[in-house]
Design goal:
Layout: E1 4-10, H1 15-27, E2 32-36, H2 46-52, E3 60-64, H3 69-76, E4 80-84, E5 91-92, E6 101-106, H4 115-118, E7 123-126, H5 138-151, H6 160-166
Parallel strand pairs: 1-2, 1-6, 2-3, 4-6, 4-7, 5-7
Length: 167
């Protein structure tokens, strides 16, 4: 059975990033996309839509101006808040087991998630990086996390000898 997940975007500003995240969200079978931290709902204009391919029409969009309201929303909808962030006391993405219903929470392009907000998340997960780069782009991070969440849903594994016959 596939895990259910929603994507929570905290104070994102880039239409391109939002568009790419929504596209990945729909491609990975996500449920709601929740925008938090903006007074007004996100407007999907040409900048976002050129990257989302208008797939936001296939996602349920939710707007919560107050970021802290997302925790009550998660509880009411049985989602477990999982922040994707570079922080202390985190789990590594490649070793993390996602909850049955996950709220993937991603922060602002420049500032990430506020420390006070991170403390309220049930889990904080970091994507391991191996090169001399400070952080990944938020849309890339979202896509990697969604892929890893879905990869855990795969009920089978291919044996090494079977893999080699495919090469």
């Amino acid at each position: 059975m596939m895990s259910d997940f929603c994507t929570v975007l905290h104070s994102l500003n880039s239409p391109q990033n939002v568009g790419m995240i929504v596209r990945s969200h729909v491609a990975h079978g996500g449920s709601e996309v929740v925008f938090i931290g903006h007074e007004l709902p996100w407007q999907f204009k040409k900048g976002s839509q050129s990257f989302s391919r208008k797939l936001e029409k296939q996602a349920k969009i939710i707007h919560l101006p107050n970021p802290d309201d997302v925790f009550e929303w998660c509880m009411a909808n049985s989602y477990t808040p999982v922040a994707i962030e570079i922080a202390e006391q985190t789990s590594l993405l490649n070793q993390f087991t996602f909850p049955e219903k996950t709220a993937l929470i991603l922060g602002n392009e420049a500032d990430g998630l506020p420390a006070s907000f991170i403390k309220k998340c049930t889990h904080v997960v970091t994507i391991p990086q191996y090169g001399p780069v400070g952080s990944l782009n938020v849309a890339v991070s979202a896509s990697v996390a969604m892929y890893e969440l879905r990869r855990g849903d795969t009920p089978w594994a291919i044996a090494r000898d079977e893999y080699e016959t495919l090469l």
